[in-house]
């Protein structure tokens, strides 16, 4: 797990990449946990998989990606609580057994 801070036009955004290890990928239960966690933060939080980004606060968006085992995903957070958001999402991914 590597957290990056990106500067773009004087805006700082954090991102972190993960590899999904769960046999069923990001299915309904962990997707719900991720959405609920992301929704607690003011930051704009996105999930990227296979070149497509969705709002991590949208269960339909997350499920539409069809993230499976061995998929590499990236979480982006941009806002006043972006560091806390990235950490909380990392914790959920680990607790749900999606990543190591």
Automatic annotation (TrEMBL):
The record, for PROSITE patterns, names: PTS_HPR_DOM, PTS_HPR_HIS, PTS_HPR_SER
Query: Which domain of life does the protein's organism represent?
Result: Bacteria
Cellular location(s):
Cytoplasm
Q: What is its main location?
A: cytoplasm
Q: Which UniProt keywords apply?
A: Cytoplasm, Phosphotransferase system, Sugar transport, Transport
The UniProt entry, under InterPro entries, shows:
HPr (IPR050399), HPr-like (IPR000032), HPr-like_sf (IPR035895), PTS_HPr_His_P_site (IPR001020), PTS_HPr_Ser_P_site (IPR002114)
Give a Gene Ontology cellular component term annotated to this protein: cytoplasm
Q: Where are the transmembrane segments?
A: none
**CDD domains (UniProt xref):** PTS-HPr_like
One Pfam family, please name it: PTS-HPr
- List, in alphabetical order, the GO biological process terms annotated in this UniProt record: phosphoenolpyruvate-dependent sugar phosphotransferase system
| Record domain HPr: where | 13-100
Signal peptide positions are none
- What does this protein do, in the record's words? General (non sugar-specific) component of the phosphoenolpyruvate-dependent sugar phosphotransferase system (sugar PTS). This major carbohydrate active-transport system catalyzes the phosphorylation of incoming sugar substrates concomitantly with their translocation across the cell membrane. The phosphoryl group from phosphoenolpyruvate (PEP) is transferred to the phosphoryl carrier protein HPr by enzyme I. Phospho-HPr then transfers it to the PTS EIIA domain.
Q: What is this protein called?
A: Phosphocarrier protein HPr
Question: What organism does the UniProt record list as the source?
Answer: Staphylococcus aureus subsp. aureus DR10
């Amino acid at each position: 797990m590597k957290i990056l801070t990106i500067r773009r036009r004087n805006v700082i955004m954090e991102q972190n990449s993960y590899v999904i290890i769960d046999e069923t990928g990001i299915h309904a239960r962990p997707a719900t946990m991720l959405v609920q966690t992301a929704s607690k933060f003011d930051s704009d939080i996105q999930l990227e998989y296979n070149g497509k980004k969705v709002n991590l606060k949208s269960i339909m968006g997350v499920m539409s990606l069809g993230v499976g085992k061995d998929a590499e995903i990236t979480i982006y957070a941009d806002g006043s609580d972006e560091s806390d958001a990235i950490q909380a999402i990392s914790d959920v991914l680990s607790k749900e057994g999606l990543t190591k």
